[in-house]
Design brief:
Number of strands: 19
CATH class of the largest domain: Alpha Beta
CATH superfamily of the largest domain: Carbon-nitrogen hydrolase
Strand order of the largest sheet: 6-7-8-9-12-13-15
Strand content: 15-25%
Number of domains: 2
Structural class: alpha/beta
Helix content: 25-40%
Number of helices: 15
Largest sheet: 7 strands, mixed
Radius of gyration: 26 Å
């Protein structure tokens, strides 16, 4: 048996010195701890592109990137403890082609460079723009008489992504007779996958399904090492795991935190996998991503417009859990049609988290701006212009506070609103980050209900129970303009998230609205991705097209 160590680390994109030192520190501390227990790690495995960070996107256009990485790769090789082998991710270049690679380093030398074979270019992945495919025939390494097969992230996902790959190269390599399954092979002892796999709901379930199939088909252990951290819109949960073929039991590291563990033996920190609460996992993902975003952009303070409605309330509690109460400023902006209950509930929520709210009443400003506008363009009956003027004034004041206090504004729109254009450009879409932009409205309600129960009623029940309203006109309700959120979210899930054909009038209406408001989505704040089809960077819908559904 090999003493393999999973190193679930959080690299910083483009910070080679930081990443190199983190890898070296991990190696040295692991060897030291093992020595105290009279053990010796044989192999420490780090995530995909752990020297560079992931995803690099167009940083790879810079020719200096490879030169800088190789400088620190040499430092890493030289300073790894003697007689220790590691696998670390980075980029390599052969015959003018870049590869997403894994370096097998043994006895302070690169013994083998393994290239990623399946190069994803769908949804949030753009790797084919830069990377050339490797070949699985070169992925085997030997260590202490054992055969290891090394893969990189997407290499194991062919069967789950059949729309993008003609066949599974693992199947082709190890089973020439069957096109469906990989036959058992006893010449592989350890199957290792290094990943930078973004979090989405149900993602862990998919990963372990693939891993169990490989464990069964190859009759070998499976070690999955995933990056933890957050990069722009993507969240990386870690959740690294190991499967022993004898019991086929999944043992894993925690989600959303760095961790290092032996896969077997008395130094193993891996715990038996237990099904997690979906709301708790989702909430933790959002909190972790906000925390990481601020840390990696160099900001410490956040603020948001807290209306007394459920969306801004959820964003507030996410921010408080991520950054601490002292670093989050809630600002109430009551307008001409805001109810007294809204301000009361906003104050109650903030008070429940031992903080205070600032109130900026902009009614006079609204009247003044409207009066000036009408003096030039004539008066008109109350309509959408008046509603959006209020929303944009709120955005103006909130962005002004950003400049004054060096604070990042959190936008509060949700996926249901964004999909059908029920949000205001330069109004509620303003911000540096949109934490709940990939949550349907029904998911917002579910998370708030869970939060209230989890944190002992620190979330006013009235916010959950009241009917949603933008409060931009007298007695306004979301239901005046939108179908019920249960029906709307079901339609969005079918035609947007699951990309199914529109089968009824509501689903056709949803698609038409999404096409019509696409220009808004292009200008929205960065959206934390938690679903398999978000409205962030991974969506590439054209603005100018004439595809529409005829409605009755």
């Amino acid at each position: 048996m090999l003493n393999i160590v999973i190193a679930q680390i959080n690299p910083k994109l483009g910070d080679f010195e930081y990443n190199c030192n983190k890898i070296l520190d991990t190696c040295k501390s692991t060897v030291s701890k093992a020595h105290q227990e009279n053990l010796k790690p044989d192999l420490i495995v780090f995530p995909e592109l752990s020297l560079l960070g992931y995803p690099p996107f167009d940083l790879l256009e810079r020719p200096e990137i490879l030169k800088e990485q190789n400088k620190y790769l040499k430092k890493l090789i030289k300073n790894i403890p003697k007689n220790l082998s590691i696998i670390v991710g980075g980029i390599s270049k052969e015959k003018n082609f870049l590869y997403n690679s894994a370096f097998f380093i043994q006895n302070n030398k690169i013994r083998k460079t393994i290239h990623k074979s399946l190069i994803p270019s769908y949804k949030v992945f753009y790797e084919k723009r830069f990377f050339k495919s490797g070949n699985f025939k070169n992925n085997s390494i030997s260590l202490k008489g054992k055969k290891l097969f090394i893969t990189i992230c997407e290499d194991i996902w062919a069967d789950e992504n059949k729309n993008y790959y003609e066949s599974n190269p693992l199947t082709k390599m190890f089973n020439n007779k069957s096109k469906k399954t990989i036959t058992k092979k006893n010449d592989i002892d350890y199957f290792i996958n290094i990943s930078a796999s973004p979090f989405t709901k149900e993602k862990f379930k998919l990963r372990t399904k693939i891993a169990k199939e490989i464990t069964k088909n190859f009759n070998c252990s499976f070690t999955y090492v995933n990056q933890v951290g957050s990069q722009d819109e993507l969240v990386f949960d870690g959740s690294s795991f190991h499967i022993n073929p004898k019991d086929n039991e999944i043992k894993r590291l925690p989600s959303f935190e760095e961790a290092v563990s032996f896969t077997e033996g008395k130094l193993s920190k891996l715990i038996k996998h237990k099904k997690s609460n979906k709301n708790e996992e989702l909430f933790n993902a959002l909190v972790f991503s906000v925390k990481e975003y601020f840390k990696k952009t160099g900001f410490s303070k956040a603020h948001l417009g807290l209306s007394g409605g459920i969306d801004s309330a959820l964003v507030y509690v996410i921010a408080v859990r991520a950054l601490g109460t002292k670093n989050v400023q809630a600002i109430a902006l009551p307008g001409p049609h805001s109810s007294s209950l809204s301000l009361k509930l906003a104050k109650k929520l903030v008070s429940g988290h031992s903080s205070k709210i600032k109130t900026l009443d902009f009614k006079d400003t609204y009247k003044s701006v409207l009066r000036n506008y009408e003096s030039i363009f004539d008066k008109s009956s109350f309509g959408l212009m008046h509603e959006n003027l209020q929303a944009r004034l709120r955005g103006l004041f909130l962005m002004t506070y950003s400049n004054q206090d060096n604070s990042l504004l959190l936008a509060t729109s949700n996926k249901s609103e964004l999909c059908v254009g029920y949000s205001t450009l330069y109004g509620d879409q303003c911000g540096a980050l949109m934490p709940i932009g990939d949550l349907l409205k029904t998911e917002v309600f579910d998370l708030c209900s869970w939060y209230r129960k989890k944190f002992k009623n620190s979330f006013p029940i009235e916010i959950i129970n009241r009917e949603p309203s933008a409060e931009l006109r007298p007695n306004q309700k979301d239901s005046d303009s939108l179908p019920s959120y249960d029906k709307l979210d079901k339609a969005i899930t079918n035609v947007i998230t699951n990309q199914k054909s529109a089968k009824n009038e509501l689903e056709k209406w949803v698609l038409n609205k999404s096409f019509q408001s696409e220009f808004k989505r292009w200008q929205a704040s960065p959206i934390i991705r938690v679903s398999k089809h978000s409205f962030g960077r991974g969506r590439q819908m054209p603005l100018a097209h004439n595809f529409r559904f005829k409605l009755k």
